[in-house]
């Protein structure tokens, strides 16, 4: 990097994208975050580690995403302290990340909201599960305390509490609406119901098997998460991924993107009352995952990636089938798009619903698909390309209206672009092995994997332990950034439009709750 | 009209039982048509009966705060729909009960059902129940005037507010159906039917999204036999509305006073044919429309009201 001269504490960070690791003290933690923010950085994630067994301290890490690189700030809390400078005033997303870090590790930000976020009383207030002296198999009696939602008062204001158990079979999340009549004055989310303790489960896992757990963090982004894990491990071990394996991974990632977008478009049609849309898009998605099953042996590709490559290579017959399928989708999707675009009732529901203005999106650090529908031209596949995206040239999809209609259009555009990428990958699939061995990793190394999944950038930060095991693995889903934005996008809308707006974001519960 | 014979009471009872028995079948037919139109494989025609059997076999769970009102409402709502079925001449005009209640009373009967349903929904005190009740009342206060206007313009054309009398008038002088005012009234009636029966585009009967529901959110706290009665009452309501539509706008086939068993069988056949067509049309309408934003529903229903008033004006200006 040329724009700031490397200092002794500025180290290269093994990753699939350009990344630096900067060790800082408390003062520089804030100053560097501020300086990087002024350079256009957004906070990607925060995590902490318990290193008291090694050098007696806790550490906090902040991964910042710049237009051309990732910078990880690393701050060792001096003298066994458990307090670090808060970043919430610089990056709004930090608020919830800080609350989660306290719940799991007991490290407290020196300012900001200190209500629990992931802890719902499943473990006592004095226990911090990610600390190394806390066992992973311990059972605790559940002591749930009422959660102090922010009250809204005024004439005729009342609350509607929705979830975590819903009328349909969907994931758990609680939404507290303060409304006047049907108009939403405020929405407050309460998440964490799907917390599974994945970070704790990673502890001491064999490095060569961690990808299987990573793939299960968020079922609809399984390729993105498992690729991020593999990329981190391959970067630490210096494994050169064969170009054929990279191309096959990209194929899987783009198919995951297409499948999810197809599913979402159908659900959006259904939420607007047009069951026809649901049925047609579900049919297309089902065909796609069935071909996944034929080609890769799995419908949702949970175990398709592994460190060093992919499990199954692609034969000529399957390549032909996928090319035929892509040609079919290139006909079918625009036909359905025309129906959506021309349907007055649908457009009336989509336009101006759940508006997330570009200014608001920028101020709150919207990323991924939601950001691209609100004028934020960020796509890690284009900005920080890793093989094979360095030669693949994905098209930049951008809309600026920021409403449900814009998020629908981004999905349509991305399907078409991903179909083009899939065809390009299939036609020019490089020769060579699909899998190479990954050597044992040295202990105490940190590596990053950053993959642009269908929701946005997915990040895995991996630290190695002796005996080729995981010391710490932090997984970050882009939903962290975008969940708080729904609270803004819903304001002024009416209650019955919330499901449609929520679906247009379609954020992860499992991936977020960890 | 002379004294009511015992046969008339038999007709009356028979017609009520027919409505109660046929209503789930009609709902099943609409569901089947919807599935076909969406390229799905359809559930069997008798699926609603299976649902009823399942629900009647389950225990009814009650909220701890539920009062007698909550327990009474399913029976009350079901009863109002049966009373409505007794007034509407679906197969015969030989209805002793229809003499004491005309179509305006019928609107009141529907309103009674709505009030019970809404009060019961608010009784338990959940957010969804009150939300659904609120929305139901909003839709209700918009549909009732529109429905009354539809009925008025029809009654002006036919010269009576008693539904059996309307059928008799039309069947004796078929040319009366050529009034253009009836066309406006028919369109307005279809719009009211959609809104009153929680169909698209006003409500979505198949949704699982609790925040968007109108009718469904009032039934969320019900289970077992209570839910069965409420579902059954909803199907009866749709059936009744369809039969009101047939009475006003295509009464052909309905057996007149003094008809024999042969004509009655013909009337049942005609009803089945009309229901088949109406159900298919309803499914088609629901498959091509998206759900309206809730605050567009008043516009939709104002339009229905306006059309009915137009029908009335057309009648007064052109047809008198």
Structure description:
The complex is a heterodimer of chains A (514) and B (320). Chain A has 18 helices and 15 strands. Chain A has 514 residues and is of the alpha+beta class. In chain A, the strands form 5 sheets. A 5-stranded mixed β-sheet of chain A has the order 1-2-5-4-3. In chain A, a hairpin with a 2-residue loop joins strand 11 (305-306) and strand 12. In chain A, helix 7 (243-271) runs antiparallel to helix 15. The longest helix of chain A is centred in the middle third of the chain and has 29 residues, at 243-271. Chain A starts with 9 loop residues before the first strand and ends with a helix. With 320 residues, chain B is mainly α. Chain B is built from 12 helices and no strands. The A-B interface holds A 159-162, 166-169, 182, 269, 271-276, 279-280, 283, 343, 345-346, 348-349, 494-499 and B 34, 37-40, 127-128, 131, 200-201, 204, 206-213, 216, 220, 287-296.
């Amino acid at each position: 990097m040329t724009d700031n001269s490397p200092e002794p504490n500025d180290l290269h960070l093994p990753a699939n994208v350009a990344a630096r690791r900067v060790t800082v003290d408390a003062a520089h933690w804030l100053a560097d975050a501020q300086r990087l923010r002024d350079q256009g950085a957004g906070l990607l994630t925060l995590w902490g580690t318990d290193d008291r067994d090694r050098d007696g301290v806790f550490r906090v890490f902040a991964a910042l995403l710049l237009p051309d690189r990732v910078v990880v700030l690393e701050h060792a809390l001096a003298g066994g302290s458990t307090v670090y400078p808060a970043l919430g005033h610089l990056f709004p997303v930090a608020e919830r990340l800080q609350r989660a870090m306290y719940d799991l590790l007991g490290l407290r930000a020196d300012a900001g909201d200190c209500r629990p976020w992931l802890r719902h009383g499943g473990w006592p207030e004095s226990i911090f599960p990610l600390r190394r002296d806390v066992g992973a198999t311990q059972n605790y009696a559940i002591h749930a305390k009422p959660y102090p939602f922010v009250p809204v008062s005024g004439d005729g204001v009342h609350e509607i509490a929705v979830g975590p158990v819903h009328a349909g079979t969907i994931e758990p999340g609680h939404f507290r609406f303060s409304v006047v009549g049907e108009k939403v004055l405020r929405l407050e989310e309460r998440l964490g119901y799907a917390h599974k303790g994945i970070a704790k489960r990673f502890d001491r896992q064999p490095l060569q098997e961690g990808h299987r757990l990573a793939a299960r963090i968020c079922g609809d982004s399984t390729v993105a998460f498992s690729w991020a894990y593999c990329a981190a491990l391959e970067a630490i071990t210096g494994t050169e991924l064969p170009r054929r394996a990279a191309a096959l991974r990209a194929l899987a990632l783009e198919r995951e993107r297409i499948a999810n977008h197809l599913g979402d478009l159908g659900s959006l049609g259904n939420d607007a009352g047009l069951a026809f849309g649901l049925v047609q898009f579900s049919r297309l998605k089902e065909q796609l995952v069935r071909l996944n099953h034929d080609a890769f042996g799995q419908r949702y590709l949970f175990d398709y990636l592994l460190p060093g490559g992919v499990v199954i290579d692609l034969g000529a017959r399957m390549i032909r089938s996928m090319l035929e399928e892509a040609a079919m989708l290139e006909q079918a999707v625009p036909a359905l798009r025309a129906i959506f675009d021309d349907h007055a009732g649908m457009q009336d529901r989509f336009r101006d619903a759940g508006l997330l203005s570009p200014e608001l999106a920028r101020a709150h650090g919207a990323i991924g698909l939601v950001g691209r529908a609100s004028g934020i031209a960020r796509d890690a596949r284009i900005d920080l390309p890793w093989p094979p995206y360095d030669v693949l040239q994905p098209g930049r999809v951008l809309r600026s209206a920021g409403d449900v209609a814009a998020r629908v259009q981004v999905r349509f555009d991305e399907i078409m672009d991903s179909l083009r990428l899939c065809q390009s990958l299939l036609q020019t699939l490089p020769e060579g092995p699909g899998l190479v061995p990954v050597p044992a990793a040295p202990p105490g190394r940190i590596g990053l994997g950053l993959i642009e999944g269908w929701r946005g950038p997915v990040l895995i930060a991996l630290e190695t332990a002796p005996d080729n095991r995981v010391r710490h693995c932090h997984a970050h889903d882009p939903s962290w950034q975008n969940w708080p934005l729904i609270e803004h996008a819903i304001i002024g809308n009416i209650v019955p439009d919330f499901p449609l707006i929520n679906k247009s974001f379609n954020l992860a519960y499992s991936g977020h709750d960890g | 009209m002379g004294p009511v014979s015992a046969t008339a009471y038999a007709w009356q009872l028979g017609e009520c039982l027919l409505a109660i028995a046929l209503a789930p079948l009609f709902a099943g037919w609409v569901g089947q048509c919807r599935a076909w139109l969406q390229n799905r494989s359809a559930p069997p025609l008798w699926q609603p009966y299976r649902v009823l059997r399942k629900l009647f076999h389950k225990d009814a769970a009650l909220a701890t705060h539920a009062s007698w009102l909550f327990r009474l409402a399913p029976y009350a709502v079901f009863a109002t729909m049966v009373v409505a079925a007794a007034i509407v001449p679906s197969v015969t005009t030989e209805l002793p009960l229809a003499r004491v209640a005309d179509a305006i009373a019928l609107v009141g009967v529907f309103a009674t059902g709505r009030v019970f349903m809404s009060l019961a929904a608010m009784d338990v005190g959940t957010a969804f129940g009150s939300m659904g009740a609120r929305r139901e009342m909003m839709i209700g206060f918009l549909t009732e005037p529109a429905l009354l206007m539809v009925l008025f313009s029809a009654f002006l054309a036919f010269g009576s507010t008693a539904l059996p009398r309307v059928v008799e008038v039309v069947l004796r002088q078929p040319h009366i159906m050529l009034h253009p005012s009836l066309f406006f009234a028919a369109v307005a009636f279809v719009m009211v039917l959609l809104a009153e029966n929680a169909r698209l585009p006003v409500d979505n009967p198949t949704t699982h999204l609790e925040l968007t529901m109108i009718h469904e959110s009032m039934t969320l706290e019900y289970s077992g036999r209570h839910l069965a009665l409420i579902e059954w009452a909803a199907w009866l309501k749709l059936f009744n509305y369809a039969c009101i539509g047939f009475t006003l706008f295509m009464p052909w086939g309905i057996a007149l006073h003094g008809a024999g068993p042969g004509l009655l069988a013909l009337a049942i056949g005609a009803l089945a044919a009309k229901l088949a067509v109406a159900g298919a049309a309803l499914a088609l309408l629901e498959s091509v429309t998206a759900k309206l934003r809730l605050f567009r529903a008043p516009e939709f229903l104002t339009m229905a009201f306006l059309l009915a008033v137009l029908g009335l004006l057309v009648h007064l200006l052109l047809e008198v």
